[in-house]
Write a structure and sequence with these properties.
mainly alpha; elongated
């Protein structure tokens, strides 16, 4: 029997906690010390965490845009996005083939 605690439900994690765990998993997998089974489980967990983070970023972006519109500001156009903003896909477009691990 394993002494490791069951992982926390991804939906209950804050954005920061999900991102920290995703970074930890990525570093562990990059080390090459995990077994195949551990790597597969980590990949699955990482995909869930990535989807959660992207959904939270999308919600934050929508909230900011709504506030800007309510304050009478012009809504940000796609062409105004910085390269880093433009490269963040929405949570609905997450493709497991695009995952970095």
């Amino acid at each position: 029997m394993s002494n490791a605690a069951a992982p926390v439900d991804v939906e209950k994690l804050s954005f920061e906690d999900a991102l920290d765990e995703l970074e930890r998993i990525t570093a562990e997998m990059a080390s090459g010390n995990a077994t195949l089974d551990q790597s597969v489980k980590s990949y699955e967990r990482g995909a869930q965490l990535l989807k959660r983070c992207r959904a939270e970023l999308n919600r934050a972006r929508q909230s900011i845009e709504r506030i800007r519109v309510e304050d009478g500001e012009v809504k940000r156009q796609t062409s105004d996005a910085s390269p880093s903003e433009a490269s963040i896909p929405s949570a609905d477009t997450v493709n497991e083939d695009d995952l970095p691990f």
